[in-house]
Amino acid sequence: MAQLLIGLLVVVVAVAIGLVLRRRQIIDVPTQPVFDAPAQLDRSDFPTSADAPWMVAVFTSATCASCADVLRKARVLQSTQVAVVDVEYTADRDLHAKYHIDGVPILVIADRLGVVRRSFVGPVTATDLWAAVAEARA
Q1: pTM above the 0.85 mark?
Q2: Alpha-carbon distances of 79 from 26, 52, 108, rounded to whole Å
Q3: In the chain, what are the domain boundaries?
Q4: Right CATH for 43-137 from 3.60.21.10, 3.90.1300.10, 3.40.30.10, 2.160.10.10
């Protein structure tokens, strides 16, 4: 009978410890992806932009509808002072990997040295984009 009580006591203590540990357990929430724009570009990776002091690089994918919209807005900025480069995923997969582009669209405004002065992750309005380029050039 004493062995039965000791066994029952051990089971009760084990259950109590299990319940306490269960309540203390922190539930891990799923991590959310974070898409970052690069802070520096090697302008030699974008030979079509060599002559312009400013470059707008738009990292896109052919299957992305919002990418096409961002690229359309960026192309309006094309001039002798601003080169606009479409860095499409299937055509430029190596550049997406080099700059750790994990989501699109990502747009960066870089100076002659490749320093990114402004960036946008996701859709951007034409007003915000054009104002960012004007501010960077000023």
Answers
A1: no
A2: 55, 8, 16
A3: 43-137
A4: 3.40.30.10
Cβ(39)–Cβ(116) below 8 Å:
yes
Question: What is the C-alpha to C-alpha distance for residues 27 and 66, in angstroms, rounded to an integer?
Answer: 35
Q: How far apart are CA 91 and CA 123, in angstroms?
A: 21
pLDDT score of 25: 63
Residue pLDDT, tens place only, 20-71 = 667 666 666 666 667 899 999 999 999 888 899 999 999 999 999 999 999 9
